[in-house]
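new request in #modeling-help
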Amino acid sequence: QKEVEQNSGPLSVPEGAIASLNCTYSDRVSQSFFWYRQYSGKSPELIMSIYSNGDKEDGRFTAQLNKASQYVSLLIRDSQPSDSATYLCAVARTQYGQNFVFGPGTRLSVLP
Amino acid sequence: SAVISQKPSRDICQRGTSLTIQCQVDSQVTMMFWYRQQPGQSLTLIATANQGSEATYESGFVIDKFPISRPNLTFSTLTVSNMSPEDSSIYLCSVGGPGGLNEQFFGPGTRLTVL
């Protein structure tokens, strides 16, 4: 079983819709979770971090964490064509450390 | 967040040669990391660059192949040694965020092609 799993996509949504990206992880001691956006040919850009169960909102982005189900998601409201990118889920392998394990990424395409 | 630069941004190298990639940060950071992103793949952690001591390598990566230096809190190098076409990847350095949060921020990356 891979440590961090994501649907590879592509996920296509119309402009203005809500895009929902999902991530599951296998290591129960993981405590820190991150979403990165990566445009083609660019390096990953941190867009959300979440550490506690529940929802965390930042502008059009909402991260959701459920440690019992080992599940983290990212919702993008009012999706724009500029949101078209690959979204990477990262999990800190140790309870306090920064050794990240990245999922394979989900490619999102927002259609005008 | 810190401004991170990498040199070179890209290179084309011959099999059997070595390339050293530099990562420079505009402020002192405790944690620096090196990742590899193979074509069409996600990121894989190569090692944690420790200031003043040997790097900590992940499973599957060894010091002889990927020697790392970290002479101070703003600079690190990764060398890809005795390269083969399988080493063609993007190599990224990242730094830990401020304030004790274990976020990471990435440099622009070095695109390496080995012929």
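bot summary: Chain B has a mean pLDDT of 94.
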